[in-house]
Amino acid sequence: MKDKEQQFNALVTDHGDKIRRICSYYNSDPDEQKDMYQEILINIWNSLHSFRGDAAISTWIYRISVNTSLSFTGKSFRKMKLIVNTDTSNLHNLLDEDETESKLNLERNLNQLQTELNQLSVIDKSLITLLLEGLSMREIADIIGITEPNVKVKIHRIKEQLKTKFKPDGHE
């Protein structure tokens, strides 16, 4: 038991901030975020014995975090809103490197971006949250449970959709 407890404490220390960010993507209410965070920790604790090491521990934790967040929101998950905060360090992952002007416009227009992201399907919202976390396509595929090429195609389509919405003239 002591060994499991030490392992769990180390995981929470190493990955607690990531888990909190996932919670903040899926719920804007701080109290709900805390409840979601606790639920994720309970699920990690309960599943710790079943971690086989087939994937990185961070991938496993992200998978539990995303799945728990989706479950936590219950039947309202279709109406779930992504919350994009002012930490834009990984926002560049949504657009290609050569679109500096578009990236700057995105960072200045977080409300518009949030509106656009919230029109995405549930799976696309999950993909974007993981992309905003700075994860690779392979890691996202492992977490979501779809193939890496499928992740690339879905993210490419989302990026194209966003590029259209954020053209300088603001029209499609």
The CATH homologous superfamily of the largest domain is called RNA polymerase sigma factor, region 2, helix turn helix motif
Low-confidence stretches: none
Question: Which topology of the largest domain does CATH recognise?
Answer: Rna Polymerase Sigma Factor, Chain: A
Q: Would you state the CATH class of the largest domain?
A: Mainly Alpha
Which overall shape is indicated by the principal axes computed on the Cα atoms?
Answer: globular
Q: What share of residues are in beta strands?
A: under 5%
CATH architecture of the largest domain: Orthogonal Bundle
Structural class: mainly alpha
Mean pLDDT: 81
Q: What does the largest sheet look like?
A: none
Number of helices: 8
Rg over CA atoms, rounded to whole Å, is 17 Å
In whole angstroms, the N-to-C terminal distance is: 58 Å
Whole-number tally of structural domains: 2
- In helices, the fraction of residues equals 55-70%
Number of strands: 0
Task: Tell me what you see in this structure.
- Belongs to the sigma-70 factor family. ECF subfamily.
- This is RNA polymerase sigma factor.
- The protein is mainly alpha-helical and about 170 residues long.
- The protein has two domains: about 1-80, Orthogonal Bundle (Rna Polymerase Sigma Factor, Chain: A); about 90-165, Arc Repressor Mutant, subunit A.
- Helix content is about 65%, strand content about 0%.
- It is built from eight helices and no strands.
- The protein has helices spanning about 1-25, 30-45, 55-70, 100-110, 110-115, 120-130, 135-145, 150-165.
- α1 (about 1-25) packs antiparallel against α2, α3 (about 55-70) crosses α7 (about 135-145) and α7 (about 135-145) crosses α8.
- The chain is globular, with a radius of gyration of 17 Å.
- The model has no long low-confidence stretch (mean pLDDT about 80).
